[in-house]
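If you are new to this repository, start here. Below is one unmodified record pulled from the training split, so you can see the exact layout before writing a loader.
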Amino acid sequence: MSIRRLPEHLVNRIAAGEVVERPASALKELVENAIDAGAIRIAVTLSEGGLSRVEVADDGCGMTPADMALALERHATSKLPETLVGDEGAIEMVATLGFRGEALPSIASVARLTVESRVRGAEGWARVVDNGVLVREGPAALPPGTRVIVEDLFGRVPARRKFLRSARAEYAACLDAVRRLAMARPDIAFTLQHDGRRALAAGQAEDRPARVAALTDRALADNAVPIDLERDGLVLGGVASIPTYNRGVADHQYLFVNGRPVRDRLLMGAIRGAYAEMLPRDRHAVVALFLDMPPGEVDVNVHPAKTEVRFRDPALVRGLIVSGLRRALDAAGHRSMQRPAESALQMWQAEPVAGTAAPVAYPPAAAHPAGGGTSLFDRRPTFLTPPPAARAEPAWAPPPQTGAHPLGVARGQVARTYIVAEAEDGLVLVDQHAAHERLVLERMRAALAGGRVAAQALLIPEVVELDEPACDRLESRLSELAELGLELERFGPAAMLVRATPALLGQADPAGLVGDLADELAAFDQALSLRERLDSVAGTMACHGSVRAGRVLGVAEMNALLREMEVTPHSGQCNHGRPTWVKLAHGDIEKLFGRR
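And here is the target side for that same chain:
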């Protein structure tokens, strides 16, 4: 077999496969070029999620006609100074977002590419390349800067086109790419329009934390700590959420190295290590970390799309991140998630356990004078004081026999979290939230096996604000969510209307429930149904409908919980695999006191 040189158009298409995987990849390259051109305003316009059109306009330095022609050739770049082109170590010193010189010719080989640019003080020029063939060039009218239009990406490459996802999914990827680049450069104003509607608008911000809060969640500003640490020439900055403000998936972790958005396993692992023992295994912190270091300490050329990096001293980088996060979280002290005032008041009101009496609040003993008939809700909430951390409530009826129940009989509650029960062969400690979470999940499974989960209509439908991709994911699964008892309706581009919640959840938090479900849907393939992922989705719902740690239970409620655990499958562990109860046998207790 003879060896032969590949034709130029095929070489470009192969290069395009490395650099341009989807519309978001092309968009990322174009926005990075605009940033490197010194733009202070960047406008992105998309049609059909970028499948039919991607447009990026900036007010940067622009290109002359000669530069424009050269930019559409492979391995041509302005990112390396001319004095360093022959230096083998020059690549390591690149401080711009890109320098490979393959993006524009690669895109032009698999799409119709229009480049219009104008240098200040000169006339504009346009060049159009259709799938690798120059079809037109000439004068163009536009303000100083550059406008690049990509149309019909992979239109003539069906083998690649068929692997692209839906317009909604591609749009979500494009929005994420722009959001990450906008976070890195608060000094640049960004706008993004999709199908004629503005989806993102970020004006110039004073600092990175302000830009991060504007692009993620407004609540992050009140539930995060600043990160600021310098060590051995490395500088770490950004914001990180306090442990009680977390998400169901890790896609709300934004990482930047020298201003470049990256997805690096080392950095993600360092974040998990910093939050170890502060977050459940299925929850993830919200962080935006900016790591700045000398260019020679990091290799940004290990991946064609420049999303992965390699550090010269990985241990130093990991230690810096873990130390910076832990120091900031330690300084936060006893801070917890900031809630509205009405939510804080509701925390004092008991939630019902299925099969028990209606809940009542637990005020101090002085608030219940003997024979008093004043309604509890007539008292001002400012007079409420916290209940004791542990208590034992007298049982007026004769206590049941411990031998009749494997998990024993409730004798009290410790730290408003753990039920203490006496069994015939020892002492049982039960995590009330973990146990009830499993019970709610098993009830949902049984109800779904019988047809569908009963829904409880809300007296006043609640509006939950989310980002547009999250709303799209929920809207695509409305019928399946209705089978689980959650009735939603689209309420504008970035909000969902909750009309009903699963009756099994009782007084659930609609906003928290819908937000976590949106994260859950993002974590698995759209090809899977909710029934196929019942454990994850129903588990998320069950967690929101469970008795919380910190809730004071009466003896009757505690015994009802124990009895249901005894007859419920898998009640020995919660939905996340943690034990729901442990037992100290009589022999173990005697050893603790030196009796054996």
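Two things worth knowing about this chain: Residues 340-388 have pLDDT under 50 and may be disordered. The chain has three domains: 8-81+90-202, 208-331, 390-596.
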